[in-house]
Amino acid sequence: MQFKLILVFVDEGKTDAVLDAARAAGATGATIINARGQGLEKSIGIFGLELLHPRTVLLILVEARRADEVLATITKVGKLDEKLDTGIALMLDVDKALGLTEHIKHLEKTVPLDPA
User: Fold this and answer.
1) Mean pLDDT of 41-70
2) Smallest Cα–Cα separation from 8: which of 64, 53, 74, 68?
3) In the chain, where do the E strands start and end?
4) Looking at residue 11, what is its pLDDT?
């Protein structure tokens, strides 16, 4: 079985909505990492200190045949293509992934693939 890793970088406030949408589209879960980041330009606060905005990094391992749908759903729900500073998502090929057999069996029952 082939897998893709989707990495999503969003504001902390969007984490739950993006995760719920990803699950509904066929993801079985995610690893969540709290991070700080900045956009195209530095944000400078009081006393000239640089501000780093709280972000969430979601690592979502998805079956390759479900990955495009999950990525499209994340992009829509996270509003990633609407303006600057909304976040980004990227998808990488995974050479091997182990320990997912039961996840896939459960997923095939609860979120069947669209035959089209």
Assistant:
1) 84
2) 74
3) 3-11, 31-37, 43-44, 50-51, 53-63, 88-94
4) 87
Whose structure tokens read 């057999």? 101
Residue 115 scores a pLDDT above 70 = no
For residue 38, give both structure tokens.
């900045």
Dihedral-angle region of residue 41 (phi above 0 means left; psi in -120 to 50 means alpha; beta otherwise): beta
Q: How many CB atoms lie within 10 A of CB 28?
A: 19
Residue pointed to by tokens 């739950």: 16
Q: Which residues contact 2 (CB under 8 A, 6 or more apart)?
A: 63, 64, 65, 93, 94
Do the Cβ atoms of 21 and 77 come closer than 8 Å?
Answer: yes
CA distance 101 to 97: 10
